[in-house]
């Protein structure tokens, strides 16, 4: 466990080790006063003559040891904390770099809750290991070991007596550790579920209120936090008895030394001064032993968290190189592509050719795999089989930066940062001038709502773009794409938030964003993609048909069925619109 963490320590590794040595010296200075006490008690018991000056020197020795102990302990702890927080910082930076190299899709799947827990809580818990358990634990274990060795040099029989509590204490400790480790994964899972439920509860509060489901939602929330409480208490209850045993037995070094040691002295097997020395030193190691033991209950937890972090670090990174895009043209080609989420195959035998400048639509029922193909094209995932190339260059054979320079991807849920609308659009091209940003906003039909804000384009969009409507957020995303001016545009349900009022505006924004570019569009509304150069009909992860609208109507029954359904739905909307006089289709 220590080794795993120290691998990320870099130059702070030595500082952590040095802090351990300083604390070890501090613990030694905590034991030394007992030797001074022995130097006073022994002559008194043995009836030897000692002077007041001698006693004063011994007491001064005790005081100096205690002061030095305090100073060194503080110094050691400050060094260990300094090293620990620097290592945590390195670990977080390392995790962030690993995360950046993971497929984007995998990052999204993990969810904000669990990633936050790993980056914040799990990494924080390592502070205990580095700043305390490692330096303090080592010092507080090493000194008792040294003391025991010197006790053996004094009188091996008495030394054995003072160690009598060790086997029972150690056995109790091992049992506790085993119980702790066994139930750790359930305890951790319960924490994870509670974490996700809390985040979901907060995120979904609006929906819960709208559907008046306060009761149900709260019940699940309550169930999960109760579950966590029960797991935690169950886990502690299983560990506590063993903790009590080793906490009380281990430091009880006098339990046999006093009665049996006295008997040894009376029978002449041991010398009285040796018994006094052994008793004094046995007493001295009680505090360090207890201190060392105090870290043990948290070790299984920390070990588990470190393993979880290691798993994240060991996840297979996205396959990419640092090459620029140097393809021959911009023809996109999917060759026998297959892809699964976990073990579930969601796309298979995908063969598609999208020529430069073509407008191509992916259609099909919900869950048929359209978005997955878009995500594969923008390299959110690596395909399990087959290849995706642009201009003959495999996506895995270029850097993600190179790919993002030639593709703009707009999906239903574009994230807006809590900065101004201007900054949010500028992300599309960080070097763009204010005029260029405004021009892109105009082309994306954003100015009409931006002008209504008192601060115009400098209005803050709120966390995640909360101050804007879904349709407005989508138009800002399109403005980003217009500003980016990449030659390939992928639109996934770009009209998802379109209401009759802004449908026209969105359509205009889209036609500006895709002018003269290759377009791959995923749309539920078949009418909007009827004129595409090529339509791919997806069915349960396969391409069921490909061609123009007219070809598919003739040759692909599933497309024909989907088209009929689309017409019926349009009819229904027109009829309903006719009834209340509003335009709905
Ligand atoms: N992150 C994921 N993990 C596991 N399964 C997923 C994930 N994303 C999608 N799926 C599954 O993969 C299949 C294809 O999903 P995909 O989103 O590609 O379909 P789609 O045709 O775009 O659907 P829609 O039109 O509803 O957006 C579905 O069965 C879906 O449940």
From TrEMBL:
<feature type="transmembrane region" description="Helical">
    <location>
        <begin position="53"/>
        <end position="74"/>
    </location>
</feature>
<keyword id="KW-0812">Transmembrane</keyword>
<feature type="domain" description="ABC transporter">
    <location>
        <begin position="332"/>
        <end position="565"/>
    </location>
</feature>
<feature type="transmembrane region" description="Helical">
    <location>
        <begin position="21"/>
        <end position="41"/>
    </location>
</feature>
<feature type="domain" description="ABC transmembrane type-1">
    <location>
        <begin position="17"/>
        <end position="301"/>
    </location>
</feature>
<keyword id="KW-1003">Cell membrane</keyword>
<feature type="transmembrane region" description="Helical">
    <location>
        <begin position="244"/>
        <end position="264"/>
    </location>
</feature>
<feature type="transmembrane region" description="Helical">
    <location>
        <begin position="276"/>
        <end position="296"/>
    </location>
</feature>
<dbReference type="Pfam" id="PF00664">
    <property type="entry name" value="ABC_membrane"/>
</dbReference>
<dbReference type="GO" id="GO:0005886">
    <property type="term" value="C:plasma membrane"/>
</dbReference>
<dbReference type="InterPro" id="IPR003439">
    <property type="entry name" value="ABC_transporter-like_ATP-bd"/>
</dbReference>
<keyword id="KW-1133">Transmembrane helix</keyword>
<keyword id="KW-0067">ATP-binding</keyword>
<feature type="transmembrane region" description="Helical">
    <location>
        <begin position="137"/>
        <end position="154"/>
    </location>
</feature>
<dbReference type="InterPro" id="IPR003593">
    <property type="entry name" value="AAA+_ATPase"/>
</dbReference>
<dbReference type="GO" id="GO:0005524">
    <property type="term" value="F:ATP binding"/>
</dbReference>
<dbReference type="InterPro" id="IPR039421">
    <property type="entry name" value="Type_1_exporter"/>
</dbReference>
<dbReference type="GO" id="GO:0016887">
    <property type="term" value="F:ATP hydrolysis activity"/>
</dbReference>
<dbReference type="InterPro" id="IPR036640">
    <property type="entry name" value="ABC1_TM_sf"/>
</dbReference>
<dbReference type="InterPro" id="IPR017871">
    <property type="entry name" value="ABC_transporter-like_CS"/>
</dbReference>
<protein>
    <submittedName>
        <fullName>ABC transporter ATP-binding protein</fullName>
    </submittedName>
</protein>
<keyword id="KW-0547">Nucleotide-binding</keyword>
<dbReference type="InterPro" id="IPR027417">
    <property type="entry name" value="P-loop_NTPase"/>
</dbReference>
<keyword id="KW-0472">Membrane</keyword>
<dbReference type="InterPro" id="IPR011527">
    <property type="entry name" value="ABC1_TM_dom"/>
</dbReference>
<feature type="transmembrane region" description="Helical">
    <location>
        <begin position="160"/>
        <end position="179"/>
    </location>
</feature>
<dbReference type="GO" id="GO:0140359">
    <property type="term" value="F:ABC-type transporter activity"/>
</dbReference>
<dbReference type="Pfam" id="PF00005">
    <property type="entry name" value="ABC_tran"/>
</dbReference>
<keyword id="KW-0813">Transport</keyword>
């Amino acid at each position: 466990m220590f080794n795993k963490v120290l691998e990320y320590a870099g130059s702070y590794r030595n500082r952590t080790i040095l802090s351990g040595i300083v604390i070890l010296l501090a613990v030694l200075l905590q034991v030394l006063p007992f030797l001074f006490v022995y130097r006073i008690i022994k002559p008194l018991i043995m009836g030897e003559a000692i002077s007041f000056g001698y006693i004063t020197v011994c007491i001064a020795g005790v005081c100096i040891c205690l002061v030095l102990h305090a100073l060194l302990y503080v110094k050691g702890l400050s060094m260990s904390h300094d090293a620990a927080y620097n290592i945590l910082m390195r670990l977080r930076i390392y995790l962030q770099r690993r995360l950046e190299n993971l497929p984007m899709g995998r990052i999204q799947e993990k969810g904000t809750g669990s990633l936050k827990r790993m980056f914040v809580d799990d990494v924080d818990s390592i502070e205990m290991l580095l700043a305390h358990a490692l330096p303090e634990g080592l010092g507080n274990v090493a000194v008792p070991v040294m003391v025991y060795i010197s006790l053996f040099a004094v009188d091996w029989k008495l030394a054995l007596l003072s160690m009598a509590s060790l086997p029972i204490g150690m056995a109790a400790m091992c049992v506790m550790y085993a119980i702790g480790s066994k139930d750790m994964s359930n305890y951790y899972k319960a924490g994870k579920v509670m974490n996700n439920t809390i985040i979901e509860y907060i995120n979904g509060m609006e929906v819960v209120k709208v559907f008046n489901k306060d009761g149900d939602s709260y019940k699940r929330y309550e169930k999960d936090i109760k579950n966590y409480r029960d797991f935690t208490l169950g886990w502690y209850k299983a560990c506590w008895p063993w903790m009590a045993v080793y906490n009380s037995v281990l430091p009880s070094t006098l339990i046999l030394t006093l009665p049996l040691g006295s008997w040894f002295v009376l029978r002449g097997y041991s010398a009285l001064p040796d018994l006094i020395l052994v008793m004094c030193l046995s007493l001295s190691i009680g505090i360090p032993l207890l201190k060392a033991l105090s870290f043990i209950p948290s070790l299984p937890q920390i070990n588990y968290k470190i393993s979880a972090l290691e798993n994240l670090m060991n996840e297979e990174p996205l396959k990419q190189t640092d090459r620029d895009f140097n393809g021959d043209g911009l023809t996109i080609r999917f060759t026998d592509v297959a892809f699964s989420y976990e073990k579930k195959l969601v796309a298979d035998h995908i063969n598609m050719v999208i020529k430069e400048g073509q407008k191509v639509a992916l259609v099909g029922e919900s869950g048929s795999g359209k978005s997955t193909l878009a995500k594969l094209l923008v390299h959110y995932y690596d395909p399990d089989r087959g290849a995706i190339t642009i201009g003959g260059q495999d996506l895995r054979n270029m850097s993600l930066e190179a790919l993002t320079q030639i593709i703009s991807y707009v999906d239903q849920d574009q994230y807006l940062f809590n900065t101004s609308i201007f900054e949010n659009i500028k992300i599309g091209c960080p070097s763009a001038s204010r005029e260029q940003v405004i021009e892109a906003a105009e082309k994306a039909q954003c100015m009409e709502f931006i002008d209504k804000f008192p601060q115009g384009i400098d209005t803050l969009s709120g966390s995640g773009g909360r101050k804007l409507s879904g349709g407005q957020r989508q138009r800002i995303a399109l403005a980003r794409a217009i500003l980016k001016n990449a030659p390939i545009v992928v639109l996934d349900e770009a009209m998802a938030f379109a209401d009759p009022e802004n449908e026209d505006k969105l359509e205009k924004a889209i036609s500006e964003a895709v002018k003269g570019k290759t377009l791959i569009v995923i749309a539920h509304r078949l009418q909007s993609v009827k004129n595409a150069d090529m339509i791919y009909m997806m069915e349960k992860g396969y391409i069921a048909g490909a061609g123009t609208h007219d070809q598919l109507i003739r040759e692909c029954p599933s497309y024909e069925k989907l088209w009929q359904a689309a017409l019926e739905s349009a009819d229904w909307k027109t009829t309903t619109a006719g009834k209340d006089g509003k335009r709905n289709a």
